[in-house]
User: What shape does this take?
Amino acid sequence: GGSYYVETLTLSIAEQAWKLFLDVEEKGGFLACINDGTVQAAVNESNAKRHTDVARRKEILLGTNQYPNINETAAGKIETTGAACGCHHGDHDHCDDKGGLNMNRAASDFETLRLATEAVAKRPKVFMLTIGNLAMRLARAQFSTNFFGCAGYEIIDNLGFDTVEQGVEAAMEKGADVVVLCSSDDEYALINSSAFSLTVSMTSLPFSLLINSVAFSTTSFTFSFSIRPEALSFNSSNITHRDLLVINHSY
Assistant: This one.
């Protein structure tokens, strides 16, 4: 019937809860597990996993790690009330009586990232060099816009270019710090050669050139090609927004 799914889900939750209850009892009860740090360790492990899932966008926080407001600023809106940990029991950064629990919310990493971007003297500009297949370039430009937008970077989107050279010229006119080449996999085979030749001949390019080789992935962001890796390089198949925190300091 229609309730089968809910009943099965309820049963699985009950089974896991009972298993956890018995495990706690075998260790001497809840108070004993609190005193030896077992409960805190389990909670912090779950917290760390959720932070990782949010950083890789396996878990979506709308407006935070997906579809962010790239022009929003927060530094001037922060109000300090009581302790930083949220207990309101004085002006301090942590509570000793919380038993070592990590109280950071899932969005806190992104908030720190956005504040770091606001604090830099120059807000990084990311230019979408869209070229070739319309559907693929739009999909990859949207993905890249979301990714860099989560860091509060300025995004410069485009309707499309006929050649890489035209796109690079437009990027230089806009004063871009990062250029993301967005196209289809088939066209990258031709575009890569053109892009490489162009960047080699123009060694003084004032930006990093990246090629987005992932179409619709929400768990990773892979670039197969990078110029000036000492300034900004994405070559990991599991890069997360935490990596952008380091990048902020290069601008």
